[in-house]
Amino acid sequence: MISEEMNGINEKIRVLEQRKKALEYKLTNEGRKERTRRLIQKGALLEKYLNIEELTVEETEIVLKVVANFKNKNTDYFENQIRRFHE
């Protein structure tokens, strides 16, 4: 009787552990899909506004470093421009 009850509890534990793994996988997969979508959108915006379609990945990285350097040296200008676009 007790061993049957233990078997039943062990089976429930096994089922719950499988369900937990499935939910963890789903959560991880959803996060990965969201990140992939965001990266694609941002990449498309970079190509659109910086005309970098013909550049290699390495050349694109150099362009982004130049832009980041300019932004970091001109933070006030960038913040004002962003505010203007939000108005």
Structure description:
By secondary structure, the protein is mainly α. The chain has 2 domains: 1-52; 55-87, no CATH class. It is built from 3 helices and no strands. The termini are far apart.
* Net shape: elongated
- Strand-and-helix sequence, N→C? HHH
How many individual helices? 3
Major β-sheet annotation: none
Helix content: over 70%
Average pLDDT rating: 93
Q: End-to-end distance, in Å?
A: 72 Å
Residue windows where pLDDT falls under 50 for at least 5 positions: none
Tally of extended strands?
0
Sheet-strand content, in percent, reads under 5%
- Give me the Rg, rounded: 25 Å
Helix-and-strand structural type: mainly alpha
Count of distinct structural domains:
2
InterPro entries: DUF3847
Protein name: DUF3847 domain-containing protein
Pfam families: DUF3847 (PF12958)
Question: What's this entry about, in short?
Answer:
The protein is mostly helical and 87 residues long. Helices cover 90% and strands 0% of the residues.
Topology at a glance:
Layout (H helix, E strand, L loop, with lengths): L1 H49 L6 H17 L1 H12 L1
Which terms summarize this structure?
single chain, about 90 residues, mainly alpha, 2 domains, 3 helices, DUF3847, DUF3847 domain-containing protein
